[in-house]
């Protein structure tokens, strides 16, 4: 049944608008796949915790006294109250506010007031832990399923996105900083992941910010923050032929990245200024000249880790897409400090993300508008199929299989969207 | 009415009347328009901001608002910026702001504390800093197009 929803060049609209399909996605994708929970730097010390969402569930990620991490469902074993309500903090024990049941940081039960009154037939339990928890280079993922591929196998060809982000840090680690920007739209979660590698849309959706930036060329001569913002606005105005020169790499597992973006010369891949020079020297000290050059030469824009993450290693940013309902999505945007890099670089990171990814961004706001229009539009009419055929056949088709297992297409192909749906179909069908 | 209070009220009204070019003129050349994400955020360089724009980028924002192809303002919003509780101390004005926005069949509201830092220039008062602290800056927001 699910298989029939995805054809080679089209997908049935039920995938975006049917609440039953969303419930099935929660069960078969978001209760099974590895989902990003948090970064290790958010919980450096024993007792440090953050609340995070893993698909449909709220989870406490906490650092134990033995230095390990626990991911616990935020639900008291007694009457079900949320144990933790602060987004982050530090605690020696986890105590329910209702009847004061108290748990260790690994979730085991410490004690229950008035314990003798509870029925002997009902075992007093600890907090349930999320079945699997693993880190990759400081990025913590968890899975609601006890079975399945290891995290490294799941990330597959897109481990490289995290590698490149961490390798850019002269001290060898990155640290989450700057809080988060949170966007919301009344549309399906998949739209965000598809749009992030749709290179036909920028010229149309972002026309207003391209044109507005062209009227203000003085922004390119201003301070570094203003300059990189103006470059980013103008980048969306590349011609279709230029976008086609941006190769899209689709990997097994539904992951995709967009390569060669900065080589198009619109957003500078590296900065020609004293701050960047200091940074480059620090990086060479860590890696040696050859590896440092290779790390800096990675010029991907969006790295999409299926099902719901977009990593930008060049700008130290990550977006996590959180499906709330079939037609309701929240996107959390977070930043990472490159430990050992000059402080000015982190200011540029923050300001780049503000301009590119805020709900008030001149760029992102138009994307959000389009998602909402798609969601409303899809429900109407008798045509039940959504076209994703661009680049699937004919002259444009130039997919090339690479040695690393990826398939590469030209930038304006819808190969990544078809590829995401092939993965979606595999997970949803069983 | 005090001249500073009148200035703050006029600034809000220009947004409601979509007179964006005139609104931009109220900002000094070195002005910054800032909507932090975090309560009591000390600096725009510590944390992400919903908007942190020097005047050059604000000019791009205003240019875009005046262009027809801006999808997120097609159709345009109608807003009421309700400014109250204006207190003036030195070169700063503090106020409470409620913005009601209606667009494409849906209404929503923003609530914020606002700080204007002002300077007297040859052509009158100008904004050096406008800081808008939303009560829910860290919450998810749908697209924001009309400045607060």
Describe this structure in words.
The complex is a heterodimer of chains A (430) and B (148). Chain A is α+β, with helices and mostly antiparallel strands and 430 residues long. Chain A has two domains: 35-143, Rieske [2Fe-2S] iron-sulphur domain (Rieske Iron-sulfur Protein, 3-layer Sandwich); 153-429, Alpha-Beta Complex (Naphthalene 1,2-dioxygenase Alpha Subunit, Chain A, domain 1), CATH 3.90.380.10. Helix content of chain A is 31%, strand content 24%. In chain A, the strands form five sheets. A nine-stranded antiparallel beta sheet of chain A has the order 12-18-17-16-15-14-13-21-20, sandwiched between helices. In chain A, strands 5-4-3-6 form a four-stranded antiparallel beta sheet, with no helix packed on it. In chain A, a hairpin with a 5-residue loop joins β4 and β5 (69-73). In chain A, α2 (19-30) crosses α14 (415-429), α7 crosses α8 (224-235) and α8 (224-235) runs parallel beside α12 (343-357). Chain A is globular, with a radius of gyration of 23 Å. The mean pLDDT of chain A is 93. Chain B is α+β, with helices and mostly antiparallel strands and 148 residues long. Chain B has one domain (3-134): Nuclear Transport Factor 2, Chain: A (Roll). Helices cover 21% and strands 45% of the residues of chain B. Chain B contains three helices and six strands; from the N terminus they run ααββαββββ. Chain B has a six-stranded mixed beta sheet with strand order 2-1-6-5-4-3. In chain B, β3 and β4 (92-103) form a beta hairpin. The longest helix of chain B has 14 residues, at 3-16. The model of chain B has no long low-confidence stretch (mean pLDDT 96). The chains are: A alpha+beta (430), B alpha+beta (148).
């Amino acid at each position: 049944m699910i298989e029939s929803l995805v054809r080679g060049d089209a997908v049935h609209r039920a995938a975006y608008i049917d609440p039953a399909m969303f419930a099935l996605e929660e069960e078969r994708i978001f209760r099974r796949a590895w989902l990003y929970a948090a970064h290790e730097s958010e919980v450096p010390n024993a007792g440090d915790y953050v609340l995070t969402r893993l698909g449909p569930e709220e989870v406490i990620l906490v650092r134990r006294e033995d230095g390990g991490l626990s991911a616990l469902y935020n639900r008291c074993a007694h009457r079900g109250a949320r144990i933790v309500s602060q987004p982050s903090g530090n605690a020696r024990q986890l105590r329910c506010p209702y009847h004061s049941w108290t748990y260790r940081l690994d979730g085991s039960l410490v004690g229950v007031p008035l314990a003798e009154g509870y029925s002997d037939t009902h075992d007093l339990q600890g907090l349930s832990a999320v079945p699997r928890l693993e880190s990759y280079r400081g990025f913590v993922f968890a899975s609601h399923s006890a079975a399945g591929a290891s995290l490294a196998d799941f990330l597959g060809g897109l481990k490289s996105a995290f590698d490149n982000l961490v390798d850019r840090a002269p001290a060898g680690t990155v640290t989450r900083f700057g809080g988060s920007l949170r966007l919301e739209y009344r549309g399906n979660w998949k739209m965000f992941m598809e749009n992030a590698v749709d290179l036909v849309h920028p010229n149309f959706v972002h026309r207003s910010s391209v044109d507005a930036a062209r009227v203000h060329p003085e922004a390119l001569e201003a301070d570094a923050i203003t300059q990189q913002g103006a470059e980013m606005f103008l980048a969306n105005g590349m011609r279709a032929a230029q976008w086609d020169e941006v190769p899209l790499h689709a990997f097994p597992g539904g992951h995709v990245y967009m390569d060669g973006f900065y080589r198009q010369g619109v957003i500078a891949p590296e900065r020609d200024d004293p701050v960047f020079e200091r940074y480059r020297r620090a990086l060479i000290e860590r890696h040696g000249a050859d590896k440092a050059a290779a790390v800096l030469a990675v010029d991907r824009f969006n790295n999409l880790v299926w099902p719901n993450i977009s990593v930008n290693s060049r700008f130290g940013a990550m977006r996590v897409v959180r499906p709330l309902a079939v037609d309701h999505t929240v996107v959390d945007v977070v930043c990472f400090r490159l430990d050992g890099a000059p402080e000015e670089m982190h200011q540029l990171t923050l300001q780049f993300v503000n301009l590119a990814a805020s709900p008030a961004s001149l760029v992102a706001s138009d994307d959000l508008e389009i998602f909402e229009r798609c969601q409303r539009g899809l429900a109407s009419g008798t045509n039940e199929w959504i076209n994703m055929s661009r680049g699937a056949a004919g002259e444009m088709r130039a997919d090339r299989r690479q040695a690393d297992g990826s398939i590469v297409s030209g930038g304006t192909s819808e190969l990544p969207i078809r590829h995401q749906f092939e993965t979606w179909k595999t997970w949803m069908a069983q | 009415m005090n001249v500073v209070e009148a200035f703050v009220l006029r600034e809000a009204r220009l947004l409601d009347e979509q007179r964006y070019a005139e609104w931009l003129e109220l900002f000094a050349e070195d002005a910054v328009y800032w909507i932090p994400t975090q309560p009591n955020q000390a600096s725009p360089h510590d944390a992400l901001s919903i908007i942190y724009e020097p005047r050059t980028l604000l000019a791009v924002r205003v240019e875009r608002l005046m262009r027809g192809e801006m999808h997120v303002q097609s159709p345009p919003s109608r807003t009421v910026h309700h400014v109250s509780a204006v207190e003036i101390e030195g070169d700063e004005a503090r106020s409470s702001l409620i913005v009601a926005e209606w667009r494409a069949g849906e209404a929503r509201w923003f609530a914020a504390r606002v700080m204007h830092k002002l300077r007297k220039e040859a052509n009158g008062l100008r904004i050096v800093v406008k800081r808008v602290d939303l009560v829910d800056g860290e919450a998810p927001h749908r697209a924001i197009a009309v400045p607060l």
